[in-house]
Amino acid sequence: MSNSTLYRLINVFRRISAEKAIIYRCFELIPEGGFVVQSADWINLPMRPESMNHHERQLWELFCEEAPDQRSVPYASIEEAIAAFDAEFGN
Predict the structure, then answer these.
(1) Residue 68: inside a domain, yes or no?
(2) N or C: which end of the chain has fewer CB within 10 A?
């Protein structure tokens, strides 16, 4: 495989309420720079372990199926990437 792009996984959290949160699954592109959001996982209390296992499995399935920067245009900042993701998916 000759793909020279590396990715750094960054989890960014948004607290919605006392029972809800979002985990944004972001990637930083190395060495090109830029940030993309691959997905957002909604967390609801009470949490079930199988839900977290599902989110983690889905993260890696999506990553392996298609490069994060093929799913989304890279943005200069992580905040811009999250705002674009939210606008596209109505979060």
Answers:
(1) yes
(2) N
Cα dihedral 80/11/52/61 (nearest 10): 70
**What does pLDDT average to over the chain?**
93
For residue 40, CA distances in Å to 32, 51, 86 come to: 23, 13, 9
Structural domain total, the chain: 1
pLDDT for the residue numbered 2: 43
In a domain, 22, yes or no: yes
pLDDT band at 47 (very low <50, low <70, confident <90, very high): confident
Mean pLDDT of 82-87: 96
Question: Minimal CA–CA distance to 36: which of 4, 12, 19, 13?
Answer: 12
CA distance 91 to 84: 10
Q: What is the pTM of this model?
A: 0.90
The answer to whether 78 touches 26, Cβ cutoff 8 Å, is yes
